[in-house]
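Backbones bend. Shown next:

***
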Amino acid sequence: MKNWLRKLAPPRSASGASPPGGRHQRPGEADSSVSPHGQETAEHILRRLEWTAIRRLDGLLQGDFRTLMRGAGLDLADLREYQHHDDVCHIDWNVTARLQIPHVRVYTEDREMAAWFLVDLSPSVDFGSGELRKRHISTEFVAVLARMLTRHGNRVGAMLYGSGVDSVIPTRGGRRHVLHLLDSMQQPASHAEGVTRLQDLLKSAASLIKRRSTVFVVSDFISEPGWECPLGLLAQRHEVVAVRVVDPLELDLPDLGLLTIRDSEPGEQLLVDTHDAGFRKRFARIAAQREAELRESFVKAGVDALELSTDGDL
């Protein structure tokens, strides 16, 4: 799955370019591409990405869907050892008797794909050291993938997290549904005091999503500890991809002299001297340690991982 997702690399559109069918803004005319919140509208986001990415990548799904979903179907895909959550009806008794270890049959999914986006919209995703914020990257990823899926008759849904699970969008198909999903992501999220608890989103998804699906967890994974186990439990039933959104400044501090750093969630501020080489080294060491811990957590949970950065294309 990771290789399939890496094909999603739409180029950034040139500044000021208009997609086919678009028009230039007349002097004095309100900009219809900007929402009342000052953000790019869902329609404009989707139209821009349809022009720059989605149509160009449209053929990818034709051959790759069969590798994305495994479940109850007609085509035998694999045999593997029985796990405690497996349906005993899928046990292959001949193989089990021969190997003396219970094995189950895994089939290729023969129905349309259902995909869920678990999107972290907590305060930390509003950060960006350059032109783009992490929220912008998350929105573009969801827009591209959701529209590509729905163009092929598949259904997508979403759970949006601000200070808790603020919104649940049931799975449906069609372009209008993708617009509704993007518009919901553009709305100001509720931000209560305290830190992000990603485990609350994952536990809610595990109880809500009954049918086997592909689940994309789109987050910067800046969260209170405790999300690792719920992620692993979710991956036991669903195909899960951890989509991590990062900013370069979170990994390495440049020499900028005195700098005020603000924690976006508790709201605490700290004045640091980035000219201090020792401080920058300690920061880089802690960041590298966190990177290693995150990678290990994804491996233990049994999920694929994809990283998106604010300084590059999707």
Observations:
- The domain at 35-62+111-248+301-309 is CATH 3.40.50.410 (Rossmann fold).
- The CA atoms of residues 72 and 107 lie 6 Å apart.
